[in-house]
Design a protein that fits this description.
The protein is α+β, with helices and mostly antiparallel strands. It has helices spanning about 45-50, 95-105, 110-120, 135-150, 165-185, 195-200, 220-225, 230-235, 270-275; strands spanning about 5-10, 20-25, 30-35, 60-65, 65, 80, 155-160, 185-190, 205-210, 210-215, 240-250, 255-260, 260-265, 280-285, 290-295, 300-310, 315-325, 325-335, 345-350, 355. α2 crosses α3. The two termini are about 25 Å apart. Bound molecules: adenosine-5'-triphosphate. Adenosine-5'-triphosphate (ATP) binds near residues 15, 19, 41 and 43.
Length: about 375
């Protein structure tokens, strides 16, 4: 069992670089947590603090009830899988998987039982006599997973374990990692910069930027109710569209977003949370998929512009629109037929709008985590 808690944790590297700032995070036993963010945001540093590979500069890192700030890695009951696999090139798959157990003086029988069991689960039993150089990338990654599995750790740490695999294999390995989590019944902490990976795997996602947590929540929370423009922009493809404008009060407690060529009436519950804020400078967000081809009166709950680009992506298509000199991107059904330069009106799904403060970027309608 392992619950992991960070309380006011900071990490400053020896050169003074402040990589993680005031981190507060409570990871429940058996939870699948994904640390998500752009390169350099501090996710690997956070994972390495759990592993004991990096020391906490201040604050406390707690496993269950024990502060582990100064507990060395081999006493933490964690296993880690790296992007680079880190296999021993001259050992067979069998020996690679069993090596950690051998170093801990496990009996030959125990090693054999655990290696065979892990190999079976990972479907690599037929590869046990090979060396890493005789394996594909996906098979090597399974060996790395097997090596971590046989240790039966309380915490499983993974740092971009799929990023060296091709697109198709990444998707099938995602399903396997999810199944592994279910079967192992341990706490998983997984680092990635890939939003799709995070959304598919996580019970909860921690979005980080510049060493600071931006939002902690379920995949739905993060995608549907982003706490700020950073989170809103980091997830979604093509990325969310923004419009700068102001709030305008209307009759019957109505609240609308207005700017040149656009007036969108906000749903009643958003209007209620924005009551009294008319005149406020806001940034409105419309996700690429939250539009439909519509005939609503132009300028009112609808967006009109000209088609700039049409990019089919198989199941649907990305539609580029010129909107008063601004370039917007939407994701629409593959059956919509539009030609370059054509005028088009899209109806906006008003229930799925996002409203942010223009200065701070904080959401004004979803409670920040
Ligand atoms: N030993 C170190 N000394 C000084 N700065 C470091 C050290 N290790 C990492 N950093 C810096 O700390 C920041 C966070 O690094 P970290 O590896 O945690 O980022 P990341 O989010 O995992 O990024 P990536 O996806 O590129 O690995 C980066 O700016 C990095 O350059």
């Amino acid at each position: 069992m392992a619950r992991i808690r960070f309380t006011n944790v900071n990490k400053k590297y020896a050169n003074g670089f402040h990589a993680v700032r005031n981190l507060n995070l409570d990871i429940e036993d058996r939870e699948f947590i994904v640390l998500l963010g752009p390169s350099g945001c501090g996710k690997s540093t956070t994972l390495n603090m759990i592993a004991g590979l990096e020391e906490v500069s201040d604050g406390d890192l707690i496993f269950d009830e024990q502060v582990v700030n100064y507990v060395p890695p081999h006493k933490r009951d964690v296993a880690m899988v790296f992007q680079s696999y880190a296999l021993y090139p001259h050992k067979t798959v069998y020996d690679n998987i069993g090596f950690g157990l051998k170093m801990r003086n496990a009996s030959k029988e125990e090693i054999d039982e655990r290696v065979q069991d892990a190999a079976k689960k990972l479907e690599i039993s037929h590869l046990l006599d090979r060396r890493p150089s005789q394996l594909s990338g996906g098979q090597r990654q399974r060996v790395a997973l097997g090596r971590a599995m046989v240790r039966d750790p309380s915490v499983f740490l993974m740092d971009e374990p799929l990023s060296n695999l091709d697109a198709a294999l990444r998707i099938s390995m995602r399903a396997e990692i999810k199944e592994l989590h279910r079967a192992m019944e341990t706490t998983f902490v997984y680092v990635t910069h890939d939003q799709a990976e995070a959304l598919t795997l996580a019970d909860r996602i921690v979005v980080m930027n510049d060493g600071v947590v931006q939002q902690i929540g379920t995949p739905d929370d993060i995608y549907e109710r982003p706490a700020n423009t950073f989170v809103a922009s980091f997830l979604g493809s093509p990325p969310i569209n923004y419009f700068d404008g102001v709030l305008e009060a209307g009759p019957d407690d109505e609240m609308a977003f207005v700017r040149d060529g656009l007036r969108l009436v906000l749903p009643a519950d958003h209007a209620a949370s924005l009551k009294g804020q008319e005149g406020r400078a806001v940034r409105l967000g419309i996700r690429a998929e939250d539009v439909a081809e519509g005939t609503a009166e132009p300028g009112y709950n609808a967006l009109s512009g000209t088609v700039n680009s049409v990019l089919p992506v198989g199941s649907d298509q990305y539609l580029g629109m010129d909107f008063g000199g601004e370039e917007l991107f939407f994701r629409v059904g593959k059956d919509l037929r539009h030609a370059f330069g054509e005028s088009i009106t899209l109806a906006v799904d008003l229930n799925r709008l996002h409203v942010f403060d223009r200065e701070t970027g904080q959401s004004l309608i979803w409670n920040a985590a």
